[in-house]
Amino acid sequence: MPRMQNPPDLRPDLARARVSETVRDGQPTIGMVSLGCPKALVDSERILTRLRAEGYGISADYAGADAVIVNTCGFLDSAKAESLEAIGEALAENGRVIVTGCLGAEPDYITGAHPRVLAVTGPHQYEQVLDAVHAAVPPAPDPFVDLLPASGVSLTPRHYSYLKISEGCNHTCKFCIIPDMRGRLVSRPHKAVMREAEKLVEAGVRELLVISQDTSAYGTDWKDRDAKFPILDLARDLGSLGAWVRLHYVYPYPHVRDLVPLMVDGGVLPYLDIPFQHAHPDTLKRMARPAAAERTLDEIAAWRAVCPEITLRSTFIVGYPGETEAEFQTLQDWLDEAQLDRVGCFQYENVKGARSNALPDHVPEQVKQDRWDRFMQKAQAISEAKLAAKVGQTMEVIVDEVDEDGIATCRTKADAPEIDGNLFIDEGAEGLLPGQIATVEVDEAGEYDLWGRLA
């Protein structure tokens, strides 16, 4: 199961900054390791863009850098361990390391393991990161040479980009500490989001991936607002730019029904990434989730009635404290009925500071693993059947890569980068370019991927 592992194979840290010019003589250079979710990736891009504007060069490896910034993830204990490992590797390879990101909210935890780090800052503390870089590696700009590309520094392929529309979250889910690390919901102004999106599209971006902690709630933190649900106007305006617009982290509030017609019109991709997390009402109550499970199936039916081709992706937690076999079976039955297209699943683990740690009846590790295996087996079977039904269909795809053998790795409108499947073209694809939109006929399907030929 290459695409639906636990956790999902989402590794933006494997990307490298795409800056075309070479580093000039005497130019101070900074490296970046960016761990965690796409929201952290956007933070990394903003930091690098600011540094590039100040005359710093961006190094693609440790050896070429005067210092390294490690943007950490601190949501799960496994993510914390990975962050500490990345910090240790950067210290061993470079020696001069500045730490930022979600784990930076626990500076003693970091310095206790790695006392040699130069500085520790918390999530989205851009100014403090810049101050730490200035102290470690003083800037030496050359105004006649150091010109910032109009699109800034990108850690993703140039044809798609993450577009963060807000920070923080107003929910109080017991297993999550995001509000403690990133604060309450603060939405970016509509004009600022549109200005960034327009610049990205002008620079060649063909797909905008809208991200936040709670995309449905965008703008509801504004006291004086004209629209009750500003996400509707934002989605409509983004959809007018001519790029693919993909919505992530959408809570299933009733007003999501008003987003779906935009997908029929073609302005927004028929794709919703919705974190359902579970289906049994007692489990959701212990999680303190904002959505009511008994209504989600009705909402799904309503979305599909308006837009039958809509793709639904979600993530779930199995083995949450107190989860009984009966509750887990309810989740299995719900998945049978919901028939979601894309599914990821996590085994519950304690997170320092989360209220769920204190809940009674924690589920044994072996039981969690067994439930995860059974859940993913069902999800895989659903995925395989849904993809098999696409054989013979003609559809648009976006090209991500064409390798030296002429095999093109593409994505359909149903596939987000890194977390969903791919469509492969293994004949006649030599002339395709990354970012190109091509029309293909699907001629083969697997568990998570498709194969096709140019139509």
From TrEMBL:
Which residues participate in [4Fe-4S] cluster 1 binding? 37, 73, 102
Please list the reactions this protein catalyses.
L-aspartate(89)-[ribosomal protein uS12]-hydrogen + (sulfur carrier)-SH + AH2 + 2 S-adenosyl-L-methionine = 3-methylsulfanyl-L-aspartate(89)-[ribosomal protein uS12]-hydrogen + (sulfur carrier)-H + 5'-deoxyadenosine + L-methionine + A + S-adenosyl-L-homocysteine + 2 H(+)
Q: Which UniProt keywords apply?
A: 4Fe-4S, Cytoplasm, Iron, Iron-sulfur, Metal-binding, Ribonucleoprotein, Ribosomal protein, S-adenosyl-L-methionine, Transferase
Pfam family, any one? UPF0004
Q: How is the cofactor bound?
A: Binds 2 [4Fe-4S] clusters. One cluster is coordinated with 3 cysteines and an exchangeable S-adenosyl-L-methionine.
Enzyme Commission no: 2.8.4.4
Q: GO cellular component terms?
A: cytosol; ribosome
Its GO biological process terms? tRNA modification
* Domain MTTase N-terminal intervals: 28-138
Q: Which GO terms describe its molecular function?
A: 4 iron, 4 sulfur cluster binding; aspartic acid methylthiotransferase activity; metal ion binding; protein methylthiotransferase activity
Q: Which Gene3D superfamilies match?
A: Methylthiotransferase, N-terminal domain, Nucleic acid-binding proteins, tm_1862 like domain
CDD domains per record: Radical_SAM
User: Which residue range or ranges hold the Radical SAM core domain?
Assistant: 155-385
Claim: S-adenosyl-L-methionine is one of the keywords in the record: yes
InterPro entries found in the cross-reference section: Elp3/MiaA/NifB-like_rSAM, Methylthiotransferase, Methylthiotransferase_N, Methylthiotransferase_N_sf, NA-bd_OB-fold, Ribosomal_uS12_MeSTrfase_RimO, rSAM, rSAM_horseshoe
User: Does the record carry S-adenosyl-L-methionine as a key word?
Assistant: yes
Write down the required cofactor(s): [4Fe-4S] cluster
Task: Identify the residues that bind [4Fe-4S] cluster 2.
Answer: 169, 173, 176
Ranges for domain TRAM come to 388-455
| Enzyme class, first EC level, given as a word | transferase
Record family assignment: Belongs to the methylthiotransferase family. RimO subfamily.
What is the purpose of this protein?
Answer: Catalyzes the methylthiolation of an aspartic acid residue of ribosomal protein uS12.
Spell out the PANTHER family in the cross-references.
RIBOSOMAL PROTEIN S12 METHYLTHIOTRANSFERASE RIMO, RIBOSOMAL PROTEIN US12 METHYLTHIOTRANSFERASE RIMO
Put simply, this protein is called: Ribosomal protein uS12 methylthiotransferase RimO
Highest lineage ranks of the organism?
Bacteria, Pseudomonadati, Pseudomonadota, Alphaproteobacteria, Rhodobacterales
